[in-house]
Amino acid sequence: MTEEIALRDAFGNALAELGHQNKNVVVLDGDLANSTRVDIFADAHLGRFLEMGIAEQNMIGVAAGLAAVGLIPFVSTFAAFAATRDLDQVRVVVAQPKLNVKICGGYSGILTGRTGKTHQSVEDIAVFRAMPNMVVLAPGDAVETRQVIRAAAEYTGPMYIRLTRDPTPVIFGEDYRFEIGTGVVLRQGDDAAFISTGVQTIRTLEAADMLAAEGVSVYLLHLPTIKPLDEAAIVEAVRRTGCVVTSEDHSISGGLGGAVAETLAEQCPAPMRRIGLRDVFSESGPNEALLEKYRLTAGHIAAAAREVMALKQRL
Amino acid sequence: MLSIRDLERIANRVRRHVVQTVHRVGVGHLGGALSATDILTVLYFHTMRIDPARPDWEDRDRFILSKGHACLALYAVMAERGYFPLEELATFDEVNSRLQGHPDMTATPGIDMSSGSLGQGLSTGVGMVLGAKLLGKSFHTYVMLGDGECQEGQVWEAAFVAARYKLDNLTAILDWNRLQQYGWHTPGDDDQVRQTPDETPAPKWQAFGWHTIELDGHNIGAIMMALQEAQGIKGKPTILIAHTVKGKGVSFMEGNYLWHSRAITNEQLAMALAELDG
């Protein structure tokens, strides 16, 4: 039985651990600490836990001020608010001056505990990808999340980290080494390429297994870093296979799919399908029903692979 | 120690730099730079613990020009103070210049925080003061706000948090010149006045838990005393509500909303410099 750990729990624990090792780490919360799990940091280091209340624009500005005097602020709120409500603030006092602020967007994607479209985020990758000087990370499991947090503290500069709410399978072993900007090949195959990010990689792996059972060998590239994009890895995946499906719990516009399409159009055009929200917001509902309705399941991913393989044949 | 008369002379030179630079570049935010000049002069030449030779000195006092469009006055004060050569003011707004159209901490030595999008500076000041406390440092942080700027909700988010954390090493200065850019006018108003609606800033800041000091923002001695009083207030942040005149020092600009951002003709420059004769 695969162990399941929520990224938010891994995140909270990793931050608390980091707080012991690095006295310059401070955490800012927008009244969501028990949801995002930065309460774990608060329990361990209350003096460096700065409650900012329900005022995200101010929270980003405060983080910029903290970074400007040499501290390492981790700002925590929901991805929806991080990417939209305080975006001008991120632009002007974080991205433009390249201040060392780490923005952690919890409850990303559409699986947000039935809270519905206002609390979900289908645009955050697109928004931060378009912003210069931002590093954009979306870890796929608890092991990777822990390493992302450590890497975040070692990296100097603006960063956005996309996190999720619910328990999800652990896919990486303790020997895994996360590196900013480096994609991870999880399956070596030749018939089609899957390129996925974040927790959606887990459903993409299931799709790969489904296809394997049909005799189709899939190459699977997991991209925990969307910016800077590992273009070489993307091109390699598509040179090997000739067709590609991107997969994300995010809009098909502007996120991972957009990034991959931009790269391939310039360097290695190939038949492509994007799995993600098809220019719609989502809604309240239980996870399985949402994944089915919004076409993010392994079945949908596998079907897209069959489509691009058919297109490849016709070329 | 500079006298009040010394500081008045410096402020006068700063105003000359502001109008000359705008004339040279073609357009600039004159009104709000001139209204801020006396306060900036006192801060940089009297009040703040700073060292132009060490703009990154860890224990320096910090200043954030939240009303970033008034940066011409800040650049002129900083040049007079020695952060960079006076001649460099001529590069304002040119490509590759160290003097950007709005304060850019990555470009200009001595600029403590980037600004330009209004309403953001007080938050960054709160962060610096909170950071100072965590680092065991005692430097003071000053944030200058515009009154139009206080229409941005984020200003009040910062005000609330600053009071909640009892940030007494934070002093805000409101450049209360009663005008903004296009201004407010509805049928029945005097169209040429366009005054910013808020008649009573002090009770609002007091309601948010701040200590307030009202003063004449063009009286050097009053500014010096108000900043000193602010340093002595414990347990709450302080805001100076500086009664100022937009365009102060140039008669045809004073109190005129059209001089928020404008070009200066040769004739207007000559008139302005004649009035700013020291």
CATH topology of chain B: Rossmann fold
- Number of structural domains of chain B: 1
Strand tally of chain B is 5
Mass-distribution shape of chain B: globular
Q: What structural category do the secondary elements of chain A indicate?
A: alpha/beta
Identify the notable features of this structure and list them briefly.
heterodimer, A: 315 residues, alpha/beta, Rossmann fold, 2 domains, 7-stranded mixed β-sheet, 5-stranded mixed β-sheet, 13 helices, globular, B: 278 residues, 5-stranded parallel β-sheet, 8 helices, 39% helix, 10% strand
Description of the molecule:
The complex is a heterodimer of chains A (315) and B (278). The mean pLDDT of chain A is 97. Chain A has a 7-stranded mixed β-sheet, with helices on both faces. A 5-stranded mixed β-sheet of chain A has the order 9-11-10-13-14, sandwiched between helices. In chain A, strands 1-8 form a two-stranded antiparallel sheet. Chain A is α/β, with parallel strands linked by helices and 315 residues long. Chain A contains 13 helices and 14 strands. Chain A folds into 2 domains: 4-169, 3-Layer(aba) Sandwich (Rossmann fold); 184-314, Rossmann fold (3-Layer(aba) Sandwich). Helices cover 43% and strands 20% of the residues of chain A. With 278 residues, chain B is an alpha/beta fold. Chain B has one domain: Rossmann fold (3-Layer(aba) Sandwich). Chain B is 39% helix and 10% strand. In chain B, helix 7 links the parallel strand 4 and strand 5. The longest helix of chain B has 22 residues, at 4-25. The radius of gyration of chain B is 18 Å and the shape is globular. Classes of the chains: A alpha/beta (315), B alpha/beta (278).
